[in-house]
C-alpha cells in the first residue's frame, strides 16, 4: 500500500506564514522605493526597458505602447494597463520635482484629467533620468534573472544623483506606508557633499543645506517646526499654503490664485470654492473661474464691500488652498523597510555610490590590464619581429604557430628595454617573460600596417597612457578619500548641469490659520450695562445725527426685578476694533483680558450677554472700567511694552501708575491690578507713556491738571497716592490725558456740553482741589464725563433710558472753562446722560456721511428737535490750588 504524502498542519500557522510571505513580497517587490536609487521595482523596470530600447536624448520619442509592452513582456508581467500609469507619473512635471520621463502627447493635467491612451502618446528618458543608469554596463550593480529567466535585469541602478531625496515617493504596503517629500537637487547635493566632508554632521547641520521640501507646484511652507522634526526623525508634517494675491479690478478686489499645494486637484479646489460661495459659508464671493493654461490662474471675484484678506484667510481654512503634507520617510535598506532621517538617507546613498565607484574602478582596471596585456604583446612582437615572422612562416598551421610563439621566451631585462612594465602577472616566471595565450592570439592577428614605425610609436604611446591609467585606478582603490572625492565631483557636475532654483518658499515664522485671521478688523461699539450685560455692535448700525437730535433707540432696558431695582442702563460705551484687546477692571481691583471679537455680538436694540458668561468673574465682582489696547496686527507681544503705563483713578481721588508689562501674563481667572480699599470704587483707567499731563474731573465740576511724573510707578497690588482732594458729597468722574492738539470736552447730566482748550486749566500739583471745569447749575446738571476730543471725532451719547445719539465734535462750540455749554441731545423727563464715548468711523461711513451732508434723524422719533440755544453765561471762578497732602495712601 502506497504511503500518503499528506500531513496535518495548523490552519492558523499556515495563514500566518502565507500572509507574512505575501506582506514581505508587497513591501520589498512592489510598494516601497529602494533607498539607493529611490525607485520602486515597476519604475526601475520601465526605465530599464527604455534603456534597452536606447531611448536617450536626443533620440526621438517612442510609442508608450511599445515601452509598456516591452516592460510587461520582459520584466514586469502584470499587463501594460498597470505599467502605463507609472510611466505617466514619472513624466508629469507637477508630480515629480525632476521628471525622469520626457513625454510627448497628453500625459494628463493637474486637474486630474487622465492621460491619452498609450497608443497615442510617446516618451523617452530625460537627461537626468538617463543618469540613473550611467555606468550600469561597467559591472557597477548586480543583475538577476527576469521572471522567466530569459533575460537579466538590475537589482538597483547606479543612481548618479540621490533620486529618493530629490523626487521623494509614495507607497502603501501591508501594514506600512511611505510618503517622502521632494527636495531641491542643488540643496541635496550640497548636503551629501557636506556629510562626506564631515561624517559627524548632525541632522540640524544638514538642515542648513536642505531647507525643507521643494514641491514642484511651488507654494509656501508655513513654519519650520515640521521640517526640523522630519529631518531629525523621518516623521513630521508641514503646512503648505498656495500662492494668492489680491488685486483691484474695476473698483472691486479679486483674489488671483497662482500656485496650489502639492497633490491638490485644481478642478476640485475650484469646485470647493464655488460650493462655499453657494452655501454662503464665504458669502463675499460672487464667482470663481479657472483661467489656467500651463500655469495656474484661478480668479475669485468678490463683492464690492468685501474684505479680501479675510476672504483669503477663509479660503485657507475651508479649502485645500492650505493643506497638510504628512511625511513618513520609509524605504528599503538592505532588503528591509526602515524609517530614515535625512542623515540616514544620505549615508545610505553615499555608501551605495561608494560601492558603485569601487566596482566601476575595478571593472576599468580589468579592462585596462587586458588592453595593456595586448599592447605588451605588440611591443614584444615588434621588438623581435624577424624571429616571430620566421616562427610563423615555418609553421604548418595556426596551432603550430601558436605553440612556437608560446615557447618563445624573453628575459625580463629585454622586456624592460622595450618599455614594458614588469608587473606581477602569469607571463613573468622568475627572470623570464613568457607569452600568455591571449598575447599569442594578439600576435597572430597582428596586421602588416602595424609594423610601420609610426604605428610602433603610437602603440608605445598608448601603452604608456594605459600604464598611467592603471596606476591611477589602483590609487583610487587604495585610498578611501579618493573614492569620496569622486562621488563629490560627479555630484557637483550633475548639479551644475541640471540644478534649478528652489520653487517652494519657506515662511519660518508662519503658522496655521488662527481664528483672528478669519475676522475682519472692523470698528464696533462695545457697551456694558449697569446689570453687567455686554455686547458689541458694528458702528454702521448707528447713523450719524445732527447736534440736538433725539437719537436712535439703543439697548432695550432690563425690566426691574423688584420695586427696589431700577431699569438697567448703559454704564460704559466705547469704540474698538475687532482685533483689539480689552482689559476689564473690576470693583475688587482685578483685571481680565479678552479680544473684542470674543464678546457676544448683538444688534443696536439687543441687550447682549451677561459679562459673567464671558469672563470668569467672582460672585462679588462687577466691571468698573475697561481699557482698550489697540492690536498691532496679530503680534500680541508688541503691545505689552514696559515703556507704557496703566494709570488708575478711584472715586475718592486716588491715582496709581503701573507698568503695562506687569499685566502681560493675565490668566483666564484674572489677576490683581490695584488694591481697592473698602468703600472706594475704581472710576477710570487710561494708558499713558509715563510723561503725560493728566486732568482729574469731579462730579461737581472741579478739575486738577498735573504732571503724570508726580505719580511714581508702583506694583500691581499697591493702593496709590492722592490725585485730587474732593469735597464732601463730591467724587471723581473722569481721568483724562492732556493732548494739546485736542480740546477738553465736558458733558453734563442734562445733555449740555462744551469744548475748552487744555491751556485754560492751570497746571498745579497733584492733591489740590482744582479749578472749575464747568459752571454746574440746576439747568446743566452734574458733570458725567470729561474727555479729550479732536475736531474730526464723532461722539456717541447714551442716556439712562437707553437712547443714544451720534454727533460730530465739530458741531460743539468751543467755550471758556467755566461756561455752561450747548445742548448736545434732547432728553425726556427723568432722563439723563449716562455715558459719552468717541466713535471711530471707517472710511466708507465717513464718505457716505459727507455725501449726505447733515443727515436726517431717524429711529423711533422721526421729527428733528431744534437745537437748544447756547448758554455760555459765565459765573464767578472759584479756584483752590492748594498743595497736596504730605501723606500718600500708598500701601
From TrEMBL:
CDD domains from the UniProt entry: TOP4c
Domain of life: Bacteria
Keyword annotations from UniProtKB, A to Z: ATP-binding, Cytoplasm, DNA-binding, Isomerase, Nucleotide-binding, Topoisomerase
One biological process term in Gene Ontology: DNA topological change
Topo IIA-type catalytic domain boundaries: 32-518
Compositional bias (Low complexity): 860-879
InterPro entries, per database record: GyrA, GyrA/parC_rep, Gyrase/topoIV_suA_C, Topo_IIA-like_dom_sf, Topo_IIA_A/C_ab, Topo_IIA_A_a_sf, Topo_IIA_dom_A, Type_II_DNA_Topoisomerases
Enzyme class, spelled out: isomerase
Protein name from the UniProt record: DNA gyrase subunit A
Source species taxonomy: Bacteria, Pseudomonadati, Verrucomicrobiota, Verrucomicrobiia, Verrucomicrobiales
Gene: gyrA
